[in-house]
Structures
1.
Amino acid sequence: MRLAQQQVDDESAKILEGMADRLDGKPPRGDDKFEDSVEQLQQTVRSCCSEGPQESLTAQLQTFLTLSRNSESLTMSLRKEI
């Protein structure tokens, strides 16, 4: 799961850097894989949740997944505005 989260973080950083570049008048980058990395993270979390009856871990992973979705939504909204 850490690897999947790191990929999301890396792609999010690329998006933010791209937004900063556009504000500086530079052309947009074309190699965006943010949404794919978020989907991979969500699949990883779902897979972890389905592996046994660890209710407290499942609740924590669901909370993590919700936060991840909120972060994705905020990043994409900001991206559309810039």
Note: The chain has one domain: 2-81.
2.
Amino acid sequence: MDPEQIDEVGRQREKHRAACRDRLVPGFPTMTVGQLADEARAATTEIGTTEDVTRFLHSAGHSRETIENVLRSLDLDSTEGPADNDAACAGLDTSPGRQRLRMLARLESLLLQE
């Protein structure tokens, strides 16, 4: 791939990331995803692992979509973490299709770790 194309891809990713951080959090008309991400990072211990951030946001009543947006803005993978991550995400989205996707993502991440 041409170095100029790589730079353009990087610029587009950064532009998209900034736009995502500027989105308003549903139910919080004065808070952006970026502000919530900063708050979640500050409120979690250590480096702010995926599990910690997810648990913090879930306990504050945020939707799965908001949690995923915050994790992306913090460059955290929503599929990483221990197998008991379901406890932190329980009740967020119980549709059978969503559960299958989450299980596949978890299995894939476990395979990649081996």
Note: The first strand starts at residue 24 and ends at 25.
3.
Amino acid sequence: MSALPEPFDDPADDEQHRPFPDPDHSIAPRKPRTVGGAAFLMVLFGTAVGLALVVIGPWRQGLAVMGGVLLVGAFARLVIPSHDAGMLGVRRKLVDVASLSVVGAALIVLAVVIPPPPPT
């Protein structure tokens, strides 16, 4: 006989003690809970559209779309209060707005400044 306890409990006991999940408090919400969450989804969707444009072919328009969406996200982060920012607010407001603005402006500048290839 062993004096050591069993490492695992009976799985049938867990089913009796584990409560059912509450559908009102699900860990995977179906819609954003804050205005910033909706703005974040808009930035995410717009960036995906811009990336798709870059992959398909018109990369200048794709970069411009991504840059414009990031600038809109920076403006949204600027005007939305921090407690409603959701995933749009990662750090302090100044850092979020500055980083989104710099990257968005850089993408737009790249789309405009890079010269087209010479015609062949």
Note: Residues 54 and 62 are 5 Å apart (CA to CA).
